[in-house]
Amino acid sequence: MRSIIPIGPFHPLQDEPENFLLTVEGETVVDIDVNIGYIHKGIELLAQQKTYDQTVFLVERICGICSITHTVCFCNAVEDLLKVEIPERAKYIRTILGEIERIHSHLLWMGLAGHFIGYNTVFMWTWKYREPILDMMEYLTGNRQSCGMLKVGGVRRNLEDSRFPALLKTLSEMEPKIKMLAEAVQDDPVLKARLEGVGVLTKKDAIDYCVVGPTARASGVDIDVRRDDPYAAYPYLDWNVIVLNGGDVYSKFLVRVLEVLEAIKILRQAVKQIPKGDFLLEIKEIPPGEGIGRYEAPRGEDIHYVRSNGTNFPERLKVRAPSFINIPSFTASCIGQQIADVTITLAAVDPCYSCTERMISARDLSGNKKYSQKDLLEISHQKTLEISRNLARPADLPKLKKYL
Amino acid sequence: MKIQEFIEILKSKSKFPFEVQQHSEKRVYIRIARENLKDIAIVIFKEMNAKFSIASGVHIREGFEVLYHFTFDKDKFICTVRTLAPHDDPKLDSLVSIIPGATWIEREIYDILGVQFLGHPNLKRLVKAEFLGEKEFPFRKDFNIKKFKEDHGLAPKISFIQPVEQTVKKSK
Questions:
Q1: pLDDT (tens digit, 9 = 90+) per residue, A280-294?
Q2: Mutating which of B68, B109, B127 best tests the A interface, going by the most A Cβ atoms within 10 A?
């Protein structure tokens, strides 16, 4: 007997509104239908009414945790249209920010994956290790997310060289913990039993459904935009593309753990090699034309298509986030699975979650006092100062206070 | 394989005319008639093993231009195939039978631009909000955002603040 189980649009496990209709026969899934569109924000249409400088801030808000991804991708697209080469220092800064983002995004997914299979130790571990790297983002750029660093032609603000030692220190503290996690994942019988052989996406399906990123690399498809269509400083650095052949959730987990280690390797080299000099190329006019930008986001290949008609506003901006092409592959990976395995299979492509972590409550516990924007800004400044105080050398402190 | 070689191979394999515009070393744009869309998809996707990245729909003066972006990952370039569906007959052949990954993007273009994809197994709306009608396409240039907002009560209510009359005290 067939029955249909609806999951969503609001369900307790996945934080974002999506609707899955599972057709089941007994315990086995025989068909799946995915409905999206509950949080369509109309960003592509909105971008047609904004200037190029404003669009950079707009695309930063497409995703809650990929604020660097979409901005760099949009800048790549416009720079492709203009056929310009950005300054070397800007390339390295983009690489550093992008890899910090990759580390925290992968750790976020690992925690959630552990939570989905009811193994909360992994969840606690990874989110604990994720916090220092977010603090590092705040220490370098001034914000955990949506830092507003990018601009067409380079970066908006410079990164201070005096802050890199703290980054290296955090990385060296983090690396043994991630290695321990990698070993634990490979040894742990619970994780292995729960993830191995679950939600297999074969290589043929991966190619047919055109999946990207860790989802494709776990199925044996050797693609990575950082190597295949180099942008930023990746051609100057030595690193590996992680490809596994399993295709199951376990392989996807392992790909992400190993990519975090690669990201640490990239960051160390980038900090060592970063040159001094200009970080922004002045761009005065954008001629009519078309440009395509690509970026290897934590979830896969992000692609932006920009068409200009010579005015100040883009005529068309097409954004393809990696999840858009990864989610239809559920049709291939879920059919024939048990219902209990479907939750982790659905989560395995890392559908994008928004995260707003700065303030837990905007209301005072004792009364009903609400914080105004000014109060929130001041609390935010205090926290940045506190992080800087913990990380910076004492000599930097007076300099920091000047900004606040 | 460089872009020039790719064009040569494409010319030898395909029996239909196309127009090439090379933007840079990594980007090439090809214009074809809409009748040949399926043939070029078979050549590029099946025989030359490109990856289908995405399609973009643009409303231009002549009609609806749909651009299919194919990435050649080993050869480090992107080939964009552009085709046109005219205003009076906005129909294109669906590529889903050749590329299963094109399912959602064809639904999206149908949803926001109103291009029909012939042969799509499940051509229904994807992203547009439910209160938007079946015939309202926000990405068409003749879509009136201001009127739409007024119709659906989304327009911001602007009320002008009356300037306060200031009484000037004369200093004695």
A1: 999 888 999 999 999
A2: B127
Across chain A, mean pLDDT equals: 85
Q: Do A328 and B100 touch (CB under 8 A)?
A: yes
SS3 A35: strand
Interval A213-231: pLDDT, tens: 999 999 999 999 999 989 8
Do the Cβ atoms of A129 and A174 come closer than 8 Å? yes
- Identify which of A40, A301, A328 has the shortest CB distance to residue B129: A40
d(CA A334, CA A39): 24
- CA-nearest residue to A289 within chain B is B23
Domains of chain B: 3-151 (3.30.460.80)
Taken in order A150, A152, A157, A161, is the CA torsion positive or negative?
A: positive
Q: Where are the domains of chain A?
A: 43-347, 373-403
**Which residues of chain A neighbour B99 with C-beta distances below 8 Å?**
208, 210
DSSP classification of residue A219: T
Among all residues of chain B, which has the CA nearest to that of A47?
A: B139
B128 neighbourhood in chain A, CB within 8 Å = 37, 40
Whole-model pTM?
Answer: 0.88
Q: What is the ipTM, given to two decimal places?
A: 0.86
Domain A43-347 in this protein, CATH class: mainly alpha
pLDDT lower than 70: segments of chain A: 11-15, 350-371, 392-404
Q: In whole angstroms, what is the distance from residue A173 CA to residue A353 CA?
A: 27
